[in-house]
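Long-time lurker. I teach an intro course on protein structure, and each term I like to show students one example going from raw sequence to a predicted 3D structure in token notation. This year I'd like something fresh instead of my usual example. Would anyone be willing to generate the tokens for the chain below so I can use it in lecture? Attribution to the forum is fine with me.
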Amino acid sequence: MERSHLRQPIERRHTFYQGRVQGVGFRYTARHIARRYQVSGYVRNLPDGRVELVAEGAPEELDRFFAEIRNEMAGFIRHEDVTRLPATGNFTGFEIRY
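-- Reply from a regular --
Happy to contribute to a lecture. Here you go:
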């Protein structure tokens, strides 16, 4: 039986964090938090000092995931730039990229 009509639409959020976000466990914290949510994607440090996080999932799940990251890392994040895009479905889990 076809169940695709029961699946929630998913979206992609491409996020850049600025502040003191490298060298403070940001990537490991994001990966740990991601395990509690139905999200997939990656997090990585960028050469310019920002952290890039790309996640796909249901909008409500992404809202909760990103809220928890903001809560956990509030003392380190100075600015967050989020772009919402259509999901690609290219991710199978959530990983740290180097």
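Some talking points for your students: The domain at 17-96 is CATH 3.30.70.100 (Alpha-Beta Plaits). The chain has one domain: 17-96.
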